[in-house]
Structure formats: structure tokens, C-alpha cells
Amino acid sequence: MKPTTTKILLVFTFFIGVSTVQAQEKDRATTLTIEQQRLLQEQRDVVKANREAFKASLTAEQLAILKDKSLNKEQQQAALIATLTETQRTLLNENREKAKVFREEFKTSLTKEQRQQLHSQNEGKIREKVNEIKERRIRRN
């Protein structure tokens, strides 16, 4: 192919991909009511604030564990958990409980039709994620 044709094809493919992503976002936005969208945004804000509070509570030793490239994710997590203070453990548990409450609150706000739409939208993503995890495990072994 000529370089010009290749560039045009590349740009065209890029725009199709962008428009598909935007269409999916619009579908999700139109699936949810304004109140549900507000609830999700509030939940995201709380989770973000909780994450920041936890990060701020980490000691220099704990930050060094997270930055250690010689450890894989599981080893980092195990090492970090072993060094957590009681206050940090309490903070993590409270954050988990809040997240559970938020999920339940959001689930109860959904109608049957909304659940079906969200399920069908997320079904492909879940399958892709499972395949990624399987591939990582195969590469690791």
C-alpha cells in the first residue's frame, strides 16, 4: 500500500475506535437516571478520598515495598499487609464496608431493565478480563 493510503486507513480506524468508545459511554449514561449518575459520582469521589487517605497513612518503609520492582503484585501485597498498623487495617476495612454499602445502594436503585442493559454491556468486558487473567497465569507458569 502507498504511505498515503496507509495513513488514511490508520486515521479512519482511529476515528471508528473513538466513536465506538463514545457511543458506549453514551449508552451507559442514557441507561442511568440523573440520580443514579449522581450517586455513582459521589461513590467515586468517596472511594478516591479513601484511597488518598490510605496512601497518606503509608510509612516510608511501606512506600518502599510498593516501589520495589523486584516483587510481583502478590508479593508486594503480602509484604504490605504484614507491615500495616492497626489504624491502617481499620481504615481498609472501613473502606471495604463503605464500598459494599455503595454497591448495594446502587443495585437497589436499578430497575430490571437497567440491570439487563448493564449486564449486556459488561458481559464482553468480563469475558475479556477473564481471558487476560488466564493468559497471565499461563505466561507465569
How would you describe what is shown here?
With 141 residues, the protein is an all-alpha fold. It folds into three domains: 1-31; 34-110; 111-141. Helix content is 89%, strand content 0%. The chain is built from six helices and no strands. The protein has helices at 3-31, 34-57, 60-67, 73-83, 86-109, 112-140. Helix 3 packs antiparallel against helix 4. The radius of gyration is 21 Å and the shape is extended. The two termini are 41 Å apart. The model has no long low-confidence stretch (mean pLDDT 82).
Structural features:
mainly alpha, 141 residues, LTXXQ motif family protein, signal, extended
Task: Itemize the secondary structure elements and their pairings.
Layout: H1 3-31, H2 34-57, H3 60-67, H4 73-83, H5 86-109, H6 112-140
Biased composition (Basic and acidic residues): 112-135
Signal peptide: 1-23
Protein name: LTXXQ motif family protein
Radius of gyration: 21 Å
How big a fraction of the residues is strand? under 5%
Provide the helix percentage. over 70%
Largest sheet, strands/sense/barrel:
none
Principal-axis shape? extended
The N- to C-terminal Cα distance equals 41 Å
Count all strands and give the number: 0
* N-to-C series of helices and strands: HHHHHH
Structural class: mainly alpha
Number of helices: 6
What are the segments in which pLDDT stays under 50 over at least 5 consecutive residues? none
Whole-number total of structural domains: 3
The average pLDDT value, as a whole number, equals 82
Provide a short characterization of the protein structure.
The protein is mostly helical. It has 3 domains: 1-31; 34-110; 111-141. Helices cover 89% and strands 0% of the residues.
